[in-house]
Amino acid sequence: MYRVANMVRIASSLLFIIVLLLIYANLPDRVGITDSSINTPGLFLPKSDFFYYCLIIFLATNAIAFVFGKVFQSIAIRPETFFFSSEIFKDRFTTWWGVFPAVMNLIFMFSLGFIAVFNNHDMDMIRSYSYLPFLGQFLVAGWIIALIVVLLKRDR
After folding, report:
1. Interval 119-136: pLDDT, tens
2. pTM value?
3. Which residue, 6, 28, 13, 9, is CA-closest to 115?
4. Where are the domains of the chain?
5. Distance (Å, whole) CA 88 – CA 85
6. Long-range contacts, 13-17 (Cβ 8 Å, 24+)
Protein backbone atom coordinates (compact mmCIF):
# COMPACT_ATOMS: atom_id res chain seq x y z
CA MET A 1 0.00 0.00 0.00
CA TYR A 2 2.87 2.37 0.67
CA ARG A 3 3.92 2.15 -2.98
CA VAL A 4 0.43 3.21 -4.05
CA ALA A 5 0.56 6.16 -1.65
CA ASN A 6 3.99 7.05 -3.04
CA MET A 7 2.68 6.95 -6.62
CA VAL A 8 -0.25 9.18 -5.62
CA ARG A 9 2.20 11.63 -4.05
CA ILE A 10 4.35 11.72 -7.18
CA ALA A 11 1.33 12.08 -9.49
CA SER A 12 -0.10 14.93 -7.40
CA SER A 13 3.30 16.65 -7.37
CA LEU A 14 3.54 16.50 -11.16
CA LEU A 15 -0.05 17.69 -11.48
CA PHE A 16 0.67 20.60 -9.14
CA ILE A 17 3.68 21.66 -11.23
CA ILE A 18 1.56 21.52 -14.40
CA VAL A 19 -1.26 23.53 -12.79
CA LEU A 20 1.20 26.08 -11.41
CA LEU A 21 2.80 26.58 -14.82
CA LEU A 22 -0.55 26.90 -16.59
CA ILE A 23 -1.87 29.39 -14.05
CA TYR A 24 1.41 31.32 -14.06
CA ALA A 25 1.17 31.73 -17.81
CA ASN A 26 -2.28 33.31 -17.54
CA LEU A 27 -1.78 35.59 -14.53
CA PRO A 28 -1.40 39.36 -14.88
CA ASP A 29 1.92 41.03 -14.06
CA ARG A 30 0.57 42.04 -10.63
CA VAL A 31 -1.17 39.15 -8.89
CA GLY A 32 -3.88 40.10 -6.40
CA ILE A 33 -3.67 38.01 -3.25
CA THR A 34 -6.09 39.47 -0.71
CA ASP A 35 -9.54 40.91 -1.09
CA SER A 36 -10.52 44.33 0.17
CA SER A 37 -14.01 45.15 1.37
CA ILE A 38 -15.11 46.29 -2.10
CA ASN A 39 -14.15 43.04 -3.92
CA THR A 40 -10.94 44.36 -5.39
CA PRO A 41 -7.46 43.02 -4.71
CA GLY A 42 -5.89 44.60 -1.64
CA LEU A 43 -2.38 43.11 -1.75
CA PHE A 44 -0.41 42.57 -4.93
CA LEU A 45 2.67 40.49 -5.68
CA PRO A 46 4.74 40.53 -8.83
CA LYS A 47 4.01 37.51 -11.00
CA SER A 48 7.48 36.02 -10.63
CA ASP A 49 7.46 36.42 -6.83
CA PHE A 50 4.08 34.70 -6.66
CA PHE A 51 5.45 31.79 -8.71
CA TYR A 52 8.54 31.36 -6.53
CA TYR A 53 6.56 31.65 -3.27
CA CYS A 54 4.18 28.95 -4.47
CA LEU A 55 7.08 26.76 -5.50
CA ILE A 56 8.88 27.23 -2.17
CA ILE A 57 5.74 26.42 -0.16
CA PHE A 58 5.14 23.35 -2.32
CA LEU A 59 8.71 22.08 -2.00
CA ALA A 60 8.93 22.77 1.74
CA THR A 61 5.64 21.02 2.50
CA ASN A 62 6.51 17.98 0.42
CA ALA A 63 10.05 17.76 1.79
CA ILE A 64 8.90 17.97 5.42
CA ALA A 65 6.20 15.34 4.86
CA PHE A 66 8.71 13.08 3.09
CA VAL A 67 11.25 13.38 5.91
CA PHE A 68 8.62 12.63 8.58
CA GLY A 69 7.51 9.59 6.57
CA LYS A 70 11.08 8.28 6.32
CA VAL A 71 11.69 8.89 10.03
CA PHE A 72 8.55 6.96 10.92
CA GLN A 73 9.56 4.11 8.58
CA SER A 74 12.93 3.83 10.31
CA ILE A 75 11.47 3.37 13.79
CA ALA A 76 12.20 -0.11 15.09
CA ILE A 77 9.29 -2.42 15.90
CA ARG A 78 9.12 -4.13 19.27
CA PRO A 79 7.75 -7.67 19.32
CA GLU A 80 4.86 -6.93 21.66
CA THR A 81 1.18 -7.61 21.43
CA PHE A 82 0.28 -3.95 21.79
CA PHE A 83 -1.22 -2.76 18.47
CA PHE A 84 0.50 0.63 18.30
CA SER A 85 3.94 -0.96 18.43
CA SER A 86 3.23 -3.59 15.76
CA GLU A 87 4.34 -3.88 12.17
CA ILE A 88 0.71 -3.66 11.00
CA PHE A 89 0.28 -0.26 12.66
CA LYS A 90 3.56 0.98 11.23
CA ASP A 91 2.58 -0.06 7.69
CA ARG A 92 -0.89 1.42 7.94
CA PHE A 93 0.26 4.68 9.49
CA THR A 94 3.11 5.07 6.99
CA THR A 95 0.67 4.56 4.12
CA TRP A 96 -1.76 7.06 5.62
CA TRP A 97 1.00 9.61 6.14
CA GLY A 98 2.26 8.99 2.59
CA VAL A 99 -1.01 10.41 1.24
CA PHE A 100 -0.57 13.68 3.18
CA PRO A 101 1.56 15.38 0.50
CA ALA A 102 -1.06 14.50 -2.11
CA VAL A 103 -3.79 16.06 0.04
CA MET A 104 -1.71 19.20 0.52
CA ASN A 105 -0.90 19.38 -3.20
CA LEU A 106 -4.62 19.22 -4.02
CA ILE A 107 -5.31 21.99 -1.51
CA PHE A 108 -2.57 24.08 -3.13
CA MET A 109 -4.08 23.43 -6.58
CA PHE A 110 -7.53 24.50 -5.42
CA SER A 111 -6.05 27.65 -3.92
CA LEU A 112 -4.12 28.41 -7.10
CA GLY A 113 -7.30 27.93 -9.11
CA PHE A 114 -9.15 30.38 -6.93
CA ILE A 115 -6.36 32.96 -7.15
CA ALA A 116 -6.41 32.59 -10.95
CA VAL A 117 -10.17 33.16 -11.01
CA PHE A 118 -9.84 36.05 -8.55
CA ASN A 119 -7.36 37.78 -10.82
CA ASN A 120 -9.71 37.37 -13.77
CA HIS A 121 -11.88 40.21 -12.33
CA ASP A 122 -15.13 38.67 -13.55
CA MET A 123 -17.40 38.77 -10.48
CA ASP A 124 -19.81 36.14 -11.83
CA MET A 125 -16.92 33.76 -12.36
CA ILE A 126 -15.55 34.42 -8.85
CA ARG A 127 -18.94 33.61 -7.30
CA SER A 128 -19.20 30.36 -9.22
CA TYR A 129 -15.77 29.20 -8.00
CA SER A 130 -15.96 30.47 -4.43
CA TYR A 131 -16.19 26.91 -3.12
CA LEU A 132 -12.59 26.08 -4.13
CA PRO A 133 -10.87 27.28 -0.93
CA PHE A 134 -13.30 25.26 1.19
CA LEU A 135 -12.58 21.97 -0.58
CA GLY A 136 -9.29 21.79 1.30
CA GLN A 137 -11.08 21.54 4.63
CA PHE A 138 -13.09 18.60 3.37
CA LEU A 139 -9.95 16.92 2.07
CA VAL A 140 -8.21 17.25 5.44
CA ALA A 141 -11.31 15.96 7.24
CA GLY A 142 -11.45 13.00 4.87
CA TRP A 143 -7.75 12.34 5.41
CA ILE A 144 -8.24 12.30 9.20
CA ILE A 145 -11.29 10.04 8.92
CA ALA A 146 -9.22 7.74 6.70
CA LEU A 147 -6.80 7.28 9.61
CA ILE A 148 -9.62 5.98 11.78
CA VAL A 149 -10.83 3.66 9.02
CA VAL A 150 -7.33 2.38 8.27
CA LEU A 151 -6.53 1.72 11.93
CA LEU A 152 -9.84 0.00 12.67
CA LYS A 153 -9.70 -2.22 9.59
CA ARG A 154 -9.49 -5.88 10.47
CA ASP A 155 -6.80 -8.17 9.08
CA ARG A 156 -7.90 -10.92 6.72
Report:
1. 876 666 666 777 777 888
2. 0.79
3. 28
4. 2-152
5. 9
6. 13/58, 13/62, 13/101, 13/105, 15/105, 15/109, 16/58, 16/105, 16/108, 16/109
